[in-house]
Amino acid sequence: MTDVTILIPAAGFARRMRGADKLLEPVAGEPLLRRQARLALATAAPVLVTLPPDPGPRGQVLDGLAVTRVTVADPGEGMAASIRAGVAAVPQDSAGLMILLADLPEIETEDLATLIAAFIANPGRPILRATSTTGTPGHPVIFPADLFAELALVTGDAGARSVVARHRARLRDLALPGDRAVTDLDTPEDWAAWRARTGR
Length: 200
What we know:
The protein has seven helices and nine strands; from the N terminus they run E-E-E-H-E-H-E-H-E-H-E-E-H-H-E-H. It is α/β, with parallel strands linked by helices.
């Protein structure tokens, strides 16, 4: 059985970047999307990356990486379209699906591996959500296989929040170091401030 499949949603328009593409922003000299895919692959889990019909440079930065590319026909809808497309491509024997946002520049492979190990070790198959050290909810989030059918029906730009809300009793949080789980950069100002603070 495939323990956990990792889904990186990368089909959205990133409108708040005002013409730039946050997924191509360099982090330590590497485009962010390529970095996320590379770190995900280092866990040895299958990795899916959703892309728009014309992937352009996003597709190019993934060249040479053993990810499965999943085309999203309606990327303008937002996160839900990527989740639906991703769930449809998950291997049938996957025990869980990790949704790894593409714009978390501080996430490391060790964080993903920690989440996967904690999910597999819990026989109750919870919804496992990463948080900051102080408990602020963040990402990634792992959903168990019995919720895939609900993930396949999500709509709008709220992603899988509705599924989490319906099954809150199954939600378990796991703290990652610092703010790795919550550093989500959506605007040019966010990127500038992060680089000034971290030197990266």
